[in-house]
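Hi Y.,

Following your request, here is the sequence exactly as I used it, all 560 residues.
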Amino acid sequence: MNILGISCYYHDSAACLIKDGVLITAVQEERFNRIKNSSDFPINAINYCIQEGGISFSEIDYVAFYEKPYLKFNRVIHDMVAKFPLSYSSFIRNIPQWLQDRLALPEVLRREIAYKGKVLYIPHHHAHAASTFLVSDFDEACILINDGVGEFATSSIGYVKSNSFKLNHQINYPNSLGLLYTTITTFLGFSANSGEGTTMALASFGQAKYKAEFDKIINIADDGSYTLNQKYFSLNKRKRMYSNHLINLLGEPRKPDSEYEERHKDIAATLQYIVEESLIKSANHLYNTYQCKNLCLAGGVSLNCVANQKILEQTPFENIFIQPGAGDAGAAIGAAFYAYNIIFENPRNFVFKHAYFGPEYTDKEIEIALNSSGLVYNKLEPDALIDIVSDRIISKKTVGWHQGKLEFGPRALGNRSILASAQDTEMVTILNSKIKHREWFRPFAPIVKADKADKYFKMLSDSPFMLLAPQVLEDKKNIIPAVTHIDCTARTQTVDKNINPKLWSLLDIHEKNTGIPVIINTSFNLKAEPIVNTPEQAINDFLKSDMDCLAVGNYFVEKQ
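Below is the corresponding structure, written out as tokens. Let me know if you'd prefer a different format.
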């Protein structure tokens, strides 16, 4: 059975293909059309999935979509009518899109890929839940879902066992932790649906001094459920997400690209504290209700690695699983597995052990790209490439690392990465100002050999998808200062030799040369760009930035 999973039309469009319950490929549309967080119908991602899967469009048995669009449309219309006439501009901007494609997916599929089969519409939070539990190695688990909004649900909790699947309680729009986080993100001058990570980073520089103000915005119960005071929000009323009441409460919003006041840092810190409070209370309530040691997280809020770590530290859960594309991109995978395992009642036979499900490029394709660029390059044996890359990292050089299959999800997990020394304090400034061209306070993540992670970080779990932020051990802070954030945490990725042997070998050689199995890993992209996909894109970013070296496959380039 071939099932094509799709998510699109809001942000982070993606497609995947599963064959007989096994994930064959999954990729986001932004990696092809180069529009960050693209909401477009994922035609390029679909074409890749079908080609990589070795099937034709006629061999697709079912298409699984990550939400129920008519139910969502019902919520949107009722919300706009209730807020009319303030919602007029939003109505004019959005309704044509609904009529053109969002309510006509079967017609879009016929037009784009000549698919005339059945479309299965999966409730959005069920798609999120399936994207984490059904691909985990847990037989049973508690589930906690938090995002902006699906059809109506914004937060859902439940307990699942084997193929039995039920979400027991949900909080509905307009109450939403995700929308709260995004609203304050825009208030702080960052972009919705992409700037939340920047808010999380900024929070570490402030103190939670605005608790009294946030108590007016959100009320959190002992079980983690919550309500938002809607007078502070302007959803579907204006082009901005917050109201004048929020400005009166917190002060003037920060203008993009302006300086950061202590007030901005403290607002971010308070927001992070409040969201963590709700999540921790919800997780504790879940554990107390079901007494299950396993927890699965999904939804865009679950990309908050600091909050995920706090859940692990401050609840009785022993095991936690978060799929690398925890947001809407991963819901395409969830929709496909929900169809296969729940609707068609097939047994589970896939575990999500790595994120490498995208395109890979041959030596010939890499050589064509390098020759077109005019760069001077050397082709090396794998061991020689790893030796020279390790040497350049030790020499405080920055290395673009383009290897193997493209990662799925928003994080670079060692195949489309920029690598650098974790020992050099100045490397944070170099990477932020000269290469990434982003905010000075943004931290950089470490990659570390999985078997050595607990020698450097306070590990409570493996972190293969960079979705946990453990504390750096006290005696290691001065050894790896470039990946030690101001709050002494690090968004760690643990690297398993069997999962990514080339990256593990690089860490191993680096350890033999320096005694330290830790390297900086940041995504291979420049500001406002998606992570690179092709060799050509990697070369272009290398040439446009102050990156020192480039390793594409077994080809090595160095700026003179």
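The mean pLDDT is 96.

Thanks again,
Q.
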